[in-house]
Design a protein that fits this description.
Elements: E1 4-5, H1 15-27, E2 38-43, H2 45-63, H3 67-91, E3 94-99, E4 103-105, E5 110-118, E6 125-132, E7 139-143, E8 145-150, E9 154-164, E10 168-179, E11 186-201, H4 210-216, E12 224-229, E13 235-240, H5 252-258, E14 262-270, E15 273-279, H6 295-316, E16 319-325, E17 332-335, H7 338-349, E18 371-376, E19 390-393
Parallel strand pairs: 1-19, 4-11, 15-16, 15-18, 18-19
Antiparallel strand pairs: 2-11, 3-5, 5-9, 6-8, 6-10, 7-9, 10-11, 12-14, 13-14, 16-17
């Protein structure tokens, strides 16, 4: 039996330990410690124009003084002083804390919450903005955090929205709390330092629902009856009656023949099982690509395809696991459920494509019954998996997408 390749779909204290420890720390991470803010003052564009007007009026006042010009110049200076004084006193007792999320996902909005406290006893705060200093190649700001009003001794929350652009760890260092209240001339800035990290999961692409069913049906990982009793499906066997057994499960025919109570046991159906094998044995520079192809982009697409297969298996109720060839990541056993999916997604997010590649296929030596789906960045390499495996490449991602229904 030869290995099968799907083009469309055709017939149908190791690095691993450090990755696991890093993900474990991410799951238990509390908000980082916030340093005392540093204070800064900046003139905004309107403030710079205002200063120019004040300078012109001041020159006119000095050259040809009269009551109207003097009063105008005095009013302009007073407004500038009041703006600086009010905004300075208002921002003095402001404190902020970032409530970062545990995880994000490429292609989905990432919400970062901020807790802003006004410690003043009497003075409220108005028009407060919170801006995060982020790596523009990893997070794209698409919605600013803004607070209209924070009363005395009040705590309010604001949310900023980002678009994750790349998977992996994103480091957050500093954020700014600013206000131009009351006249929009001077910007008062409080800069807080709160180191934190957010793990960005790879993008999940909706795949065709029949993809997994077509490869799992009739194979090792297909739906089957369990070898243990305890379900409510097909007949499994008969055993002696035990107190507490439901009357609906009593074998009445046997009772009539032997005069002894017996209970009918039912088997349970085991859901299909799949194991996704991500083949990263070949270094990025050694991938077989066309002149116009980006080898690193192909590797990222392979990770996206593997993550999408896991997400589809979870949605269909399959049991699924993950193995990675070429990277020191331990194989993840066959299970299902939200936390199992998040564990696999975190492992895929933490893959370092710059790390040295290792030999081996990443498959644990076992007799598990599961359909093996091997995902390759460039070309199919059947040597990485048993002959019964199905093989996919990163270039097939678009053809495997779920087609949008016509309106």
């Amino acid at each position: 039996m030869t290995a099968r390749s799907c083009e469309g779909i055709s017939p149908i204290d190791s690095p691993a330990a450090s990755i696991g420890a890093k993900i474990g720390r991410m799951s238990d991470q509390a908000p980082g410690e916030v340093s005392r803010p540093t204070r800064h003052t900046r003139f905004v564009r309107a403030g710079a124009i205002y200063l120019l007007v004040v300078a012109v009026v001041g020159i006119a006042t000095g050259s040809r003084p009269n009551n109207l010009v003097i009063w105008l110049f005095s009013a302009l200076i007073a407004a500038l002083l009041v703006s600086g004084l009010i905004s300075g006193l208002m921002m003095l007792p402001i404190r902020a804390l970032r409530l970062e999320p545990r995880r994000g996902r490429v292609g989905e909005p990432l919400l970062v919450r901020y807790e802003v406290s006004n410690r003043a006893r009497f003075m409220p705060a108005f028009d407060i903005s919170v801006a995060e200093r982020v790596d523009a190649t990893r997070l794209e700001p698409i919605g600013a955090a803004w607070i209209l009003h924070a009363g005395p001794r009040d705590t309010v929350h604001a949310e900023a929205v980002f678009r994750p652009l790349r998977r992996g760890l994103v480091a957050l260092e500093r954020f700014e709390v600013t206000s131009t209240f009351p006249f929009g001339l001077i910007r008062k800035i409080l800069r807080f330092r709160q180191p934190a990290q957010i793990l960005i999961h790879p993008e999940v692409v909706p795949l065709r629902p029949d993809l997994l069913a077509s490869v799992a049906t009739g194979s090792l990982g297909g739906q089957r009856l369990s070898g243990e009793a305890g379900g409510s499906d097909d007949f499994f066997g008969v055993r002696e009656y035990q107190p507490g057994d439901s009357i609906r499960h009593i074998a009445w025919k046997r009772l009539a023949g032997t005069g002894k109570l017996a209970t009918v046991e039912r088997g349970r159906v085991v859901p299909p099982r799949i194991r996704v094998l991500l083949d990263l044995r070949r270094p990025t520079a050694a991938l077989r690509t066309a002149p116009d192809e980006d080898a690193r982009a192909l590797e990222e697409r392979a990770i996206v395809l593997a993550a999408s297969m896991v997400a589809l298996a979870d949605r269909l109720g399959y049991e699924y696991g993950l193995s990675v060839a070429g990277i020191a990541i331990p194989a993840v056993g066959l299970r299902r459920g939200h936390f199992h999916r998040e564990k696999i997604m975190s492992l895929l997010a933490a893959i370092d494509l710059d790390a040295p590649r290792l030999a081996g296929n990443g498959l644990a030596a076992s007799d598990e019954r599961a359909t093996l789906l091997s995902v390759h960045p460039d070309r199919t390499d059947t040597a990485v998996a048993p002959k019964s495996a199905w093989h996919f490449t990163a270039r097939q991602l678009d053809s495997l997408r779920e087609k949008a229904e016509a309106p």
